[in-house]
């Protein structure tokens, strides 16, 4: 157990609530022959609404459903896209647009796409001369503008209803606001300015009533959100990041970086978090750093130099981030994790306008990302695209950190996270379940809480299994919501099996802790879930076994037909591997090195094998797939597909629909590379996921129309994982979390109890998804060598031990604490020294409440005999809240 001073937990068997990353939801907003643009300084998306410029120089507004021509050019001047912005109004969902036309600086303001009002201002230096708009900030119903004349740059607040502007900085003969940038939030604004005495740049803050000077020697442009202001300032000749929290009783500038090398710039805040760019000495690309000196980016996701030194190199809004990385991908951190956005159906984003001026920066606001680019639907004009991400969760405060990382070590985990503005400390929640939160940790296996923490934190006492961590921030008496959990897996090695290259591993659904693995011309057996292995005799030594299948005491082994060894065989054991008999009279050597055997999940006497040539094979009509309906005594070849012309099935992987075994999929190097049969292999339909080959295949047990394949292109370059939810009629990429390009996929295993959990063996190690393939995470700790991370096959024992066959031995991962039972869920309500166990009264048939004193196998469950009270349709049992913990489950008998 993890070390802690007190453990009090009541745990029930609980269905995993999968953590879902945002769906890839990109909408092409408009389809026409018009080129659409906007600027690079300011956002043009708010609450899912959009503002843009068409190629006739008109202003167009999208209200979330349809477009509206707000202002045609007509007799107006050309639009200046550096003063062009859409921001939030005073009411939820309301938007305010501001733009400038012509060299004379005529500006307009529009609410919700309504007819615009002219911005009316008075030049404080010469009322007869117009003012030229240089910058705009729009947020929360307030509009601020820098309106310049010559070297003077006063700041105005504009009434969005009337367009009338109020001067905030007076008529002092000073150069005023610098750089043409202003940041606003909640009726407040900040900007840099300088006077004409010494050229020192100062920080101006409009607090809603007056303008103040907060600091001097600042560099770049300050940023404000919810009264928190961040900026960079020169200290000893090097830019450092500062925070000024105006919400405090006695606010003062706080220096939050002390870097002695490299460059800091572009500090940003959303009022809870802080991020900035840091370019290390001797490098060009920049990292995004979070408050507390926590790096968000890696070498593959850095901000490229040409963007890092330009406008808006990244965006931070309401706990979410967006940036363009060094691989020209849009990286989006949603609050549920960071991943590149699939921008299709657009082909690109950003670029330059017709005059070659940079334009159209992608924008993130309120969980929406907008960009312009060419469409895959055709045409040479840029269209507008809108990605609907995750709605930000800012209803509760304080928000959790943006990034929680868990780095495993020998029996320990080091947790690091970024600081939250105003947080006094942090709480960590740990469990064996990926749904862990501050609210449910007591009802989960292994649930614990650690309080009053700071980063980094080292926890010890970890063993061979999965652990999940969530974090909250505490400010004053309030604890905020939990972060999305992060996972850590501790792989364990096995003894008794040679350190060699293993090709196959298999366990039966009724075989408890028994499993089999093949490598080094031996087949090994474990009877304790992979802790120890022993080589089998009985005639199985020597052949190069490449595939295994198990059903109780019956074990099948397929050997490869390498020329120096002889034709392939299938051997069968009826006594758990004690003795073996050859059951397939192979008729030739087809040169394949990958074999496959699968058993019908309902009738295991029906089995299929691939890459075999029986003496009875008729070419070209027969495929290389063979079938037996009597446990392997007799075999026949299944026919090849009849379409397309010249089709040939070369199957490296087979999968059977667990609910309807007449439905079979075969994938490999043939043409087509993936086929489906609905009649047990007599007829085949092409369901290929695109050019190349298929080497791994898995079907969702509970939703068999959903399947996953591991594919490569025709040059053996990995395509990663492809997913279909309609039995192979269409496919989508499922590679979020994999490196680019993804590693070759060798093995796919869907958890039979919870198909949202998918385990993947790759050429670069083990990956897992807890959300149905929407996002993957690498978990290689314990796979200590590159060869050990070359996983060829995975299996899950009936005792829920995940076993891996690798290039450097056999490894195991304890999953017994995940999904102890299927539904229903048992809930727990604590009250002092007692707890109430509650479940629906409708479940009176076939369920019994049980308890255990430990969840370490072997688990002994005992019936709970405490009285049951039925109230409001719920069954309720009151038990003592003990220390150490008791564990509870509803068991179907």
Features:
single chain, 893 residues, mainly beta, 5-stranded antiparallel sheet, globular, disordered N terminus
Describe this structure in words.
The protein has 893 residues and is mostly beta strands. 0% of the residues lie in helices and 43% in strands. It is built from one helix and 77 strands. Strands 15, 16, 17, 18 and 19 form a five-stranded antiparallel sheet that branches. Strands 37, 38, 40, 41 and 42 form a five-stranded antiparallel sheet that branches. Strands 1-77-73-74 form a four-stranded mixed sheet, with no helix packed on it. The protein is globular. The two termini are 30 Å apart. The relative contact order is 0.08.
Summary of the model, kept short:
The protein has 893 residues and is mainly β. The protein contains one helix and 77 strands.
Secondary structure topology:
Elements: E1 10-12, E2 26-28, E3 45-46, E4 49-53, E5 59-62, E6 67-71, E7 79-88, E8 95-101, E9 106-111, E10 117-118, E11 132-139, E12 142-148, E13 155-158, E14 165-167, E15 176-177, E16 183-185, E17 188-194, E18 201-206, E19 211-216, E20 218-225, E21 228-235, E22 238-245, E23 254-255, E24 263-269, E25 274-279, E26 287-290, E27 294-295, H1 305-308, E28 314-317, E29 320-324, E30 330-333, E31 338-340, E32 363-365, E33 368-373, E34 383-388, E35 404-409, E36 412-417, E37 425-431, E38 448-453, E39 457-460, E40 466-475, E41 478-479, E42 486-489, E43 492-493, E44 502-506, E45 515-519, E46 522-526, E47 534-535, E48 545-551, E49 554-559, E50 570-573, E51 581-582, E52 596-599, E53 607-610, E54 622-628, E55 636-639, E56 651-656, E57 664-668, E58 674-677, E59 685-686, E60 693-699, E61 707-712, E62 718-724, E63 732-733, E64 745-750, E65 758-762, E66 765-769, E67 777-778, E68 791-796, E69 801-806, E70 809-814, E71 827-831, E72 834-840, E73 847-852, E74 862-863, E75 869-871, E76 874-880, E77 886-892
Parallel strand pairs: 1-77
Antiparallel strand pairs: 2-34, 3-4, 4-5, 5-6, 7-8, 8-9, 9-10, 11-12, 12-13, 13-14, 15-17, 16-17, 17-18, 18-19, 20-21, 21-22, 22-23, 24-25, 25-26, 26-27, 28-29, 29-30, 30-31, 32-33, 33-34, 35-36, 36-39, 37-38, 37-40, 40-41, 40-42, 43-70, 44-45, 45-46, 46-47, 48-49, 49-50, 50-51, 52-53, 53-54, ...
């Amino acid at each position: 157990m993890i070390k802690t001073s007190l453990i009090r937990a009541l745990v029930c068997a609980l269905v995993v609530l999968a953590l879902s990353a945002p769906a890839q939801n990109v909408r092409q907003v408009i389809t026409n022959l018009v080129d659409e643009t906007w600027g690079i300084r300011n956002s043009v998306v708010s609450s899912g609404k959009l503002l843009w410029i068409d190629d006739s120089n008109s202003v167009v507004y999208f209200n979330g459903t349809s477009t509206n021509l707000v202002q045609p050019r007509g007799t107006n001047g050309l639009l200046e896209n550096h003063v062009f912005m859409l921001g939030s109004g005073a009411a939820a969902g309301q938007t305010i647009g501001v733009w400038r036309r012509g060299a004379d600086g005529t500006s307009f303001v529009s609410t919700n796409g309504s007819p615009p009002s002219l911005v009316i201002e008075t030049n404080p230096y010469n009322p007869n001369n117009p003012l030229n708009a240089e910058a705009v900030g729009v947020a929360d119903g307030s509009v601020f503008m820098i309106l310049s004349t010559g070297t003077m740059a006063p700041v105005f607040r504009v009434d969005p209803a009337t367009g009338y502007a109020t001067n905030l900085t007076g008529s002092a003969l000073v150069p005023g606001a610098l750089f043409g940038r202003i940041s606003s939030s909640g009726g407040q604004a900040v900007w840099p300015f300088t006077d004409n005495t010494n050229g020192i740049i100062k920080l101006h803050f409009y607090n809603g009533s007056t303008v103040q000077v907060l600091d001097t020697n600042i560099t770049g442009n300050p940023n404000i959100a919810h009264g928190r202001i961040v900026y960079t300032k020169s200290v000893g000749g090097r830019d450092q990041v500062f925070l000024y929290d105006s919400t405090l009783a006695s606010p003062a500038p706080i220096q939050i970086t002390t870097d002695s090398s490299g460059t800091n710039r572009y500090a940003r805040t959303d009022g809870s978090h802080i991020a900035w760019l840091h370019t290390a000495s001797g490098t060009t690309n920049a990292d995004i750093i979070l408050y507390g000196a926590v790096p968000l980016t890696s070498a593959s996701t850095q901000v490229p130099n040409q963007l890092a030194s330009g406008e808006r190199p990244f965006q931070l809004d309401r706990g979410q981030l967006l940036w363009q990385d060094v691989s020209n991908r849009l990286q989006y951190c949603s609050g549920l994790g960071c991943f590149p956005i699939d921008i299709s159906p657009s082909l690109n984003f950003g670029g330059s306008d017709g005059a070659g001026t940079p334009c159209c920066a992608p924008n993130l606001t309120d969980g929406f990302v907008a960009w312009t680019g060419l469409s895959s639907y055709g045409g040479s004009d840029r269209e507008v695209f809108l990605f609907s991400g995750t709605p930000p969760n800012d209803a509760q405060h304080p928000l959790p950190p943006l990034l929680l990382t868990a780095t495993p070590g020998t029996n320990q985990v080091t947790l690091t996270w970024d600081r939250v503005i105003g947080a006094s400390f942090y709480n960590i929640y740990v469990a064996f379940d990926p749904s862990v939160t501050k609210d449910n940790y007591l009802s989960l296996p292994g649930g614990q809480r650690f309080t009053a923490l700071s980063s980094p934190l080292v926890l010890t006492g970890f063993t061979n299994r999965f652990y999940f961590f969530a974090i909250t921030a505490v400010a004053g008496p309030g604890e905020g919501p939990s972060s999305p959990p992060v996972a850590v897996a501790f792989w364990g090695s096995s003894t008794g099996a040679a350190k060699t290259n293993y090709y196959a591993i298999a366990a039966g659904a009724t075989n408890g802790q028994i499993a089999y693995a093949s490598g080094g011309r031996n087949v090994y057996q474990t009877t304790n879930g992979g802790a120890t292995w022993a080589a089998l005799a009985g005639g199985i030594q020597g052949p190069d076994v490449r595939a295994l299948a198990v059903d109780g005491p019956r074990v099948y082994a397929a050997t490869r037909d390498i020329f120096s060894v002889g034709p392939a065989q299938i051997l069968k054991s009826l006594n758990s591997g004690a003795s073996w008999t050859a059951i397939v009279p192979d008729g030739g050597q087809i040169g394949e090195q990958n074999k496959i055997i699968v058993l019908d999940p309902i009738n295991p006497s029906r089995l299929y094998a691939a890459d075999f040539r029986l003496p009875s094979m008729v070419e070209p009509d027969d495929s290389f797939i063979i079938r037996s309906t009597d446990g392997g005594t007799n075999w026949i070849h299944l026919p090849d597909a009849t379409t397309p012309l010249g089709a040939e099935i070369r199957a490296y992987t087979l999968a059977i629909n667990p609910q309807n075994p007449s439905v079979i999929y075969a994938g490999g190097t043939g043409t087509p590379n993936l086929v489906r049969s609905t009649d047990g292999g007599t007829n085949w339909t092409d369901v290929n996921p695109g050019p190349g080959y298929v080497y791994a295949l898995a079907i969702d047990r509970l939703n068999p129309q959903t399947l996953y394949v591991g594919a490569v292109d025709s040059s053996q370059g990995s395509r990663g994982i492809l997913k279909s939810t309609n039995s192979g009629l269409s496919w989508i990429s499922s590679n979020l979390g994999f490196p680019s390009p993804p590693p070759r996929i060798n093995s796919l295993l869907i958890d039979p109890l919870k198909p949202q959990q998918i385990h993947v063996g790759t050429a670069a190690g083990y990956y897992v998804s807890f959300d149905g393939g929407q996002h993957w995470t690498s978990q290689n700790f314990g796979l200590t060598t590159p060869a050990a991370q070359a996983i060829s096959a995975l299996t899950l024992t009936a005792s829920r031990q995940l076993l891996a066959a690798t290039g450097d031995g056999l490894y195991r991962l304890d999953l017994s604490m995940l999904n102890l039972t299927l539904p229903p869920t048992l809930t727990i309500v604590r009250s002092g020294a007692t707890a109430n166990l509650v479940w629906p009264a409708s479940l009176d048939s076939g369920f019994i409440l049980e308890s255990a004193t430990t969840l370490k196998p072997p688990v002994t469950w005992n019936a709970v005999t405490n009285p049951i009270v039925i109230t409001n349709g719920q069954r309720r049992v009151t038990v003592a809240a003990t220390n150490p913990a008791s564990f509870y489950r509803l068991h179907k008998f």
